[in-house]
Amino acid sequence: MEGRKIILKKNTDEKFKTENIGERLRKIKVNLTENILDIICPKTCPMCDKILSSHENICTACHSKLVYIHEPKCKKCGKELRDETKEYCADCSVNKHFFKCNVAVFEYSHMVSRSLYKFKYHNRRTYAKFYGEAMAKHCAYDIEMWNPDVIIPVPIHYKKRIKRGYNQAALIARELGKRTNIFVDEKYLYRVVNTKPMKELNKTTRKKNVEKAFKIYKNVVKYNKIILVDDIYTTGSTLDACAKALLAAGVKEIYCICMSVGYGI
C-alpha cells in the first residue's frame, strides 16, 4: 500500500507539472501573439489615436480629460444630476422604464462621442478593450450588488452586423465578461426589426422605432438577473424595448450598463 501511495503521489505530481507547463506555454503564446499584433497593428488611444505602448489602453493626456459619472445621479437612468436633492432626473420622474436601473461610465462629451462614433462606424474594434476595462472598474460595486447570471449585449440586426462586421455592444460585453468572470450570451436576445438609426429620431419616434424590435431566441427561462450592455444611453428606448422582451420571457431583473450618458436635470 505504501508503494502504491508513492506511485499515486508521483503520478499526481507529474500531472500537476504537465498542467503547469501547458498553462505557461499558453500564456507565452498569448503574449507572443499580442506582441506581434502590436508591431503589425499598434494599439492607438481610443480618444486621440496616438500610438500606445503594449501596456496602455489610453494615453495619459486623454485619460486626464475624461469625465466619469459620479453622484448625485438619477437612480433609474444613471444620468448625473445638477440638483443633489433630487433622486430622479426629469425624464425618469414622469416616464416608466422596464429595467431596474442603468449606470454609465462617462459623461457624454465631444471627445467620448467622437471615440464611440469611430468605434461603431469606422472599425475601431480595438477600442473595446479600454471600454470594457473602464466599465469593469467604474461599475464594479454595482455589478457585485446586482450579482447577475449573465451579460447580454444589445443586439443589432443581422443586416447591419453583416455590413459593419461586428456588434459594438457585443465587443464591449465580451471585454466586461473577461474582467468580471460573468458569462456573456450573444444569442439569447436578437433583433427582428432593422430599425432606423436612433440619432435621426426624436423622443417619440425613438420608442416607436424599437417597439417589438427584439425577441428571445428560445422562449425558455434561463436567467433571473441580466445585465444589458450598450454604448450610449439617450432616452432609454432601446433598453426598454429589450427589457420588455426579456420580462415577457420570464426574466426577473434587468440591469443596464452604458459607456456614456448625458446630463439629467
Q: How are the secondary structure elements laid out?
A:
Elements: H1 2-40, H2 60-65, H3 90-94, E1 101-107, H4 110-121, H5 127-138, H6 140-146, E2 150-153, H7 158-164, H8 168-180, E3 189-191, H9 203-210, E4 214-216, E5 225-233, H10 237-248, E6 253-261
Parallel strand pairs: 1-6, 2-5, 5-6
Antiparallel strand pairs: 3-4
Helix pairs in contact: 5-8
Quick summary:
This protein has 265 residues and is an alpha/beta fold. The chain is built from ten helices and six strands. The chain has a single domain, classed as Rossmann fold, CATH 3.40.50.
Give descriptors for this structure:
6 strands; 265 residues; alpha/beta; Rossmann fold; two-stranded antiparallel ribbon; four-stranded parallel beta sheet; 10 helices; globular; single chain
Could you walk me through the main structural features you see in this protein, from its secondary elements to its overall organization?
With 265 residues, this protein is of the alpha/beta class. The chain is built from ten helices and six strands. It has helices at residues 2-40, 60-65, 90-94, 110-121, 127-138, 140-146, 158-164, 168-180, 203-210, 237-248; strands spanning 101-107, 150-153, 189-191, 214-216, 225-233, 253-261. The strands form two sheets. A four-stranded parallel β-sheet has the order 1-6-5-2. It has a two-stranded antiparallel ribbon with strand order 3-4. Helix 5 crosses helix 8. It is globular, with a radius of gyration of 22 Å.
Number of helices: 10
Q: How many strand segments?
A: 6
What number of structural domains do the residues give?
1
Largest sheet: 4 strands, parallel
